[in-house]
Design goal:
By secondary structure, this protein is of the alpha+beta class. The strands form eight sheets. A five-stranded mixed beta sheet has the order 2-1-3-14-15, covered by helices on one side. Strands 8-7-21-20-19 form a five-stranded antiparallel beta sheet, sandwiched between helices. A three-stranded antiparallel beta sheet has the order 4-6-5, with no helix packed on it. 42% of the residues are buried. The longest helix has 64 residues, at 15-78. α6 (185-194) crosses α7 (201-217), α11 packs antiparallel against α12 (301-308) and α15 (373-383) runs antiparallel to α25 (724-737). The protein is 38% helix and 14% strand.
Length: 797
Amino acid sequence: MATNDKKPVSSHTPNTSNAKTPAKTTQTKKKCKKKRTVLGVLGSGVKGILKFVTIIFCVVVMIGSVAAVLLSQYVVTATANDADLLNLDQIKLSYTTHFFAQNPNTGEWEDYASLYNQQQRTWVDLPQIPESLQNAFIAVEDKDFRHHKGVNYKRTISAAVNLVLQKVSGGAFGLYDSMQGASTITQQLIKNITGDDDTDPLRKIREVFRAIGLENRYSKDMVLEAYLNTISLTGNLAGVQAGAEYYFGKDVKDLNLAESASIACVTKSPTNYNPVTNPANHVQRRNHVLKLMRDQGLVTEEEYQEAKNYPLILAEEQSEQITTHTSHNSWYVDAALDEIIPLVKAQEGFETDAEAYSFFTTEGFNVYLNVNPFMQAEMEKLMLNTDQTFMDLPIEVEDADGNLQEGETWAVDQNGAQKFSQAGKPIKIIKTNAAMVTIDNDTGKVLAIAGGLREKKADRVLNRAMIQHQTGSTMKPLAAYALGIEYRLTHYSDAWPDIPYQEIPDPDHPGRMKQWPMNYGGKVSNQNVLLYKALARSLNTVPVHIIGDYVGVDIAFNFLHDTLNMKNLVTPAENPKHNDSALSPLALGGLTEGASPLEMAAAYQMFSNGGQYHAPTFFSSIQRPNGEVYMESSPATVQALSPEAAMVMNRLLRNPVIDPQGTAAGIGGQIAGMEVIAKTGTTQDWKDFTFVGATPYYTTAVWYGYDEPNMIAHNNAENRQYSKFPQNAFKKYMSTVQQGLEARMFPTSKNVVKQSFCTISGLLAGPGCPAAQGYYTSDYILTDTCNGAHEPPPPAA
């Protein structure tokens, strides 16, 4: 059958179909070959890229390794002293200013005194700080403080990226709208301690590594305690205790939640958020801190609402006057502060001494003083006056302002009732006081100073060694005699007329004139007197003639004011009618305001060191806690007199001591085996007694009188007795402090010639003349010999 005979279609496939199959296979092979070629090319490219990437990676790794090594070396170097610098156990001491003195026996610097300003910075332990205050700072400054290890890496990285984006875009875009800091409380503490506040990236690197190291060594509580005690607030305030006292007049432990937030909010911008000057801004910022505390679960909603509505109640405005809380600084430390504070004020640009003082006492400075601790202790011991070296002479005076000064008491009658004057003003009792200062002849360094008698009961009280008093006759050698010798206008045994210089109006008899000057006791001899005797006996006539006729008022004034740095002398420009450019002030010491014992000692040193004036200084250098020099003393030194003139003056000043009629004859020619030179000074009305004496090592000035000038002596006998008190004090003091010192002589000059002169005529001693040894500059020696008539030539022209 036809259907049964059918075969599969495949069996009837034409050969042509079978013939086509190889052709398809060949075509497929061609396609496959083409595909392998593309893959090969791609494979070669990928291999090249991989090789390039590998090379770049290796280069980056090498550069990164080098950078890591360099960074590690930098970090190691930059943080080498961190164990000492970031020692939280000693951080309290690092903010105390230390004074050091050099041991005169060993030469070693030893701790002498410490000073810190508790009003501005008082350390409190963490348990005394309310938890609300701790949490306020944590909420606003570092909410993750309790959890990180010193660094918040998320904030650090995001802040770095934000910084880069803003720098690259010129501030057009970034992660945040403004620059955002990333410093943790730990990092802020490090900046507070080190003062490292540079803006370069390396500072952040140092800070990060320091923060990690700090938290590895100390607990969170110790870090937080140190931070809260060093944080800067407004003005010169530092630390939460100072802030609590200043803003709210209370101890930090007594702060409420609102007050705690107030202190914490200030640090963001002390000026903008100052509660005193910007109270509205401050309250807004305070409430923001409170909101952060609520949002972070540190306070409840109820506590937040109550504190937010709490009024800002500040303590009464504080006085500008500083009250230190350290106990009984020595007179020397007080005097050093008087020199240092104005220098700090100028260097830092502060407006007030109070600001400079606060800064100085909260920066942890190390001050290297010029004090000799042994001499200072002996001087203060003497000035306790337990043996009445200076006699207490209490008197009753009318009080001017109703305020008693140290050592004063109100006067009462026999019934115990307070006394009043006829003008209705209270009467008070004042006692005599005294001051003393010693400087080193070779350097001008102040070695010891005491500003008052009896126990020193407070700090930074009136220092009488540094304020002006009337100097009396101690002024005579400085301008009259010294310049007369310097300019070769006179010599050691020159003859001068002991007569008044001029007539002046008599204040006791209006409309009448009187002869001026007169010597002590209102007398003159009307005869010639030799220069060395005039100085020994402190005649008034001779120094007036020297300046009036020869040296000149202008030259004398300029020498004292400019060369010897007596800047308190009143110039004609300052007061045309009452100034010190006149004969009485320059020749006799009748100054408008006076000169301080410190100024007098500094001026007299030129007679014992070859004619040099060294500005007196109390310190040599001031260093920061890390040893960096903050300030060095650079006192001015000038050659005030030639060495030969200084030597002649030195020999002239021996006469008040060795002449039996000399005004300082009672102290003797030597102390502890060394020569002494000296000059006394008494004001005409016996209100001030001054003495300046020197040995080859030291020059010392002493003043004795009342703080409110009043007559000490009331007759010649009392004057002779009381004028000895400063001399006795000098002798007693120098006898102690020079014990054990190697004997020295005063400096000499090859340009000084020693000659024998007639003590009557002042000429070269002839046969039969009473003779003595005099000292003369080699260009102004004696040439005429006394003929026995003992008639001296007129004074040198």
